[in-house]
Amino acid sequence: MRNWDVFFTATKLSKGLELDFVENPATSEDGSLARNDILNFEITLRRSKFDGMVVEVRPDGDVIIMAQNARWRISKPTESDKVHPVALRTKPHIWFIREEIG
């Protein structure tokens, strides 16, 4: 189980949102998430925080997380996703929210 600081610029989680994961403390560079990893979300616009957790890692590489009382499917960026230029410089592990799971 690892701890991740997760940064995003919206006011709440939603489909299509870019999430920038930074392992804290850093133990590897692969950026893979594992079940029961702890997620420490920080809303940079509000300077507020909340916690989450990885609940499932699927064989196709998608990950299910629990945060803000909802389950979300996230995945690594595809070629069609636009990654924020600052994220490219700071080298976080980037994931995108694909959908809320009911």
Mean pLDDT, as a whole number? 87
Number of helices: 1
Largest sheet: 7 strands, mixed, barrel
Q: What share of residues is helical?
A: under 10%
Termini separation comes to 25 Å
Structural class assignment: mainly beta
Approximate shape: globular
Secondary-structure element order, as H and E?
EEEEEEHE
Strand content: over 45%
Instruction: Report Rg.
Output: 12 Å
Strand order of the largest sheet: 1-2-7-6-5-4-3
Total DSSP E strands: 7
Low-confidence stretches: none
Observed structural traits:
102 residues, 1 helix, 6% helix, globular
Explain this structure.
This protein has one helix and seven strands; from the N terminus they run E-E-E-E-E-E-H-E. It has one helix spanning 85-90; strands at residues 3-8, 18-23, 38-43, 48-57, 63-67, 70-75, 93-101. It is globular and about 30 Å long. The mean pLDDT is 87.
Topology summary:
Elements: E1 3-8, E2 18-23, E3 38-43, E4 48-57, E5 63-67, E6 70-75, H1 85-90, E7 93-101
Parallel strand pairs: 1-3
Antiparallel strand pairs: 1-2, 2-7, 3-4, 4-5, 5-6, 6-7
Brief summary:
With 102 residues, the chain is mainly β. The protein has one helix spanning 85-90; strands spanning 3-8, 18-23, 38-43, 48-57, 63-67, 70-75, 93-101.
